[in-house]
Amino acid sequence: MTDTVKIHVKDLKKYFGKLEVLKSINIDIHEGEVVVVIGPSGSGKSTFLRCLNKLEHSNGGTIIVDGNDINDKNININKVREDIGMVFQHFNLFPNMNVIKNIMLAPVKTKKMTESQAHEAGMRLLKRVGLESKAEAYPQQLSGGQKQRVAIARALAMNPSIMLFDEPTSALDPEMVGEVLTVMKELAKAGMTMVVVTHEMGFAREVADRIVFMDGGYIIEEGTPDQILKNPKQERTISFLNKVL
Amino acid sequence: MISILQSYSTMLLRALGYTLVLTVLALIFAMIIGLIFALMNVSHSRILNIIGTVYVDAIRGVPLIVLAFFIYFGVPQAFKMMGFTSFRLPALQAGTIALAMNCGAYMAEIFRAGIESIDKGQMEASRSLGLTYGTSMKCVILPQAFKVMIPSIINQFIITLKDTSILSVIGYPELTNMGRTIAGNTFLSLQTWAIVGVMYMIVIVSLSKAAKRIERKIKIEDSEGKPRKRHRDQ
Ligand SMILES: Nc1ncnc2c1ncn2[C@@H]1O[C@H](COP(=O)(O)OP(=O)(O)O)[C@@H](O)[C@H]1O
Ligand SMILES: [Mg+2]
Question: Is B230 domain-assigned?
């Protein structure tokens, strides 16, 4: 972790109609930092993550990613997103393309790489997630764990400096959770800036630099895994942890 | 019956050819019109939504025959009133335009439903990679939507093929018009219309069968999780 702030969030607000999902979120995430976001279902964890790459448009506050104010009209959001990989709970692989095409699509279409460069980079990434042999397979032919590893490789193909994970293991059979977490741990070790929404407390304890507990539209409490998991201060954090641990 | 077939078979087949040409032309333009208005309808721009909805509702609210009269007789008059010398579209063009506009409205609905049937996560995944809305539509959403739409498109093809008969009223030399000519010349209405009916039926039943086959194939592919290409190679 360095002192450079990669993501600066100030007084972030997000409503869906009358529903105030995020009331005021404030956080600075540093380069190379792994932040794990926990909180009850419906507390706005996904919404927070999706605001960071503008999949959701915020209703107030400031989000600065790598020095770019993503709500600034003059910022090309597509360029900003190239630097932010996202991994979804339900993988969202493109079923009409095989694995390697899934990975190559974005680098080729954004003209970041030529077809052959993208293929080479794609194969390297597949090797990294242990799925070299599945390059020509279609998503439907893969297990959940394999799908999620491909999804991670696809996000990495754009060479992002930030990775967002929204419950990447929640849709997996228990025996497949490990293989995905292993890939994520290696990413963290390699210095990737990561924001991870997860219920995997083992992962949080082992990998997180900071755990953030969200509830009711606010960050209620944050700190190192030791502080949050062993000595939570807030009532709501304690009762949440009692339920999940 | 035999005598009609003997004397008119070439003309009947040619008329059937015109019917098919008109259908295919109309369908090609309808796909383009349908895609444009469907994209307007699913876009996030309020104005485009309204334009798309108005087109679809307006066209679907007018019988094809009225639309055909409007384009064939009405539009030339408008040109005349604007001071142009008398101008009339040939029946082929007027018929194709009327049919394409009509079919285009239904195509727009088929495309819209197809696009909306694709999981929202697909667009989000694509956008999160830094791809633009347009590229995401073209490379991710539309190829998947198109596969879903194939049976509906073939169904619309059949409807449009039947609708070409309406264009006999503006003198387009398609199959129904030829039927009228032959029945008028020979006074053998029963035989003539039986032959014409069977000709339509053969084409349409073959198309329906093809549609069923394709539909079944797509279902099998989806359940086996096999890519489409492999099947084609077999
Ligand atoms: N697109 C949306 N439209 C309306 N309400 C939404 C939308 N997305 C999320 N919500 C609501 O916002 C709240 C927070 O959702 P979410 O961020 O998914 O929570 P979490 O990920 O913590 O479970 C929930 O009440 C959810 O129903
Ligand atoms: Mg969520």
Answer: no
In the chain, the amino acid numbered B99 is L
Contacts of B210 (CB under 8 A, 6+ apart): B154
| Residue B221 zone, left/alpha/beta (φ > 0; ψ -120 to 50; rest) | alpha
Residue B12 has pLDDT above 70, yes or no: yes
Q: What is the pLDDT of residue B117?
A: 96
- Cα–Cα distance for residue pair B46/B128, rounded to 1 Å: 24
User: What is the model's pLDDT at position B225?
Assistant: 52
Contact pairs from chain A to chain B, CB under 8 Å: 69
Q: And the tokens for A31? A: 């380069």
Q: What is the pTM of this model?
A: 0.89
> Is residue B85 very low, low, confident or very high in pLDDT (cuts 50, 70, 90)?
confident
The answer, yes or no, to whether residue B233 has pLDDT greater than 50, is no
| Residue B141, domain member (yes or no) | yes
Per the structure, the count of domains in chain B is: 1
A84 CB neighbours in chain B (<8 A) are 128
Asked if A55's CB is within 8 angstroms of B127's CB, the reply is: yes
Q: Which of A53, A93, A110 lies nearest to residue B131, judging by beta carbons?
A: A110
pLDDT band with cut points at 50, 70 and 90 for residue B223? low
Residue A163 DSSP code: E
**Residue B234 located in a structural domain:** no
CB A181 within 8 A of CB A169: yes
pLDDT of residue A15: 96
Contact A160, A85 (CB under 8 A): yes
Asked if the structure places residue B229 within a domain, the reply is no
How many angstroms does the Cα of residue B135 sit away from the middle of ligand 2? 27
Query: Could you tell me the residue range of the domain that residue B109 belongs to?
Result: 2-224
Residues of chain A with pLDDT under 70: none
Residue type, B2: I
CATH number (domain holding residue B154): 1.10.3720.10
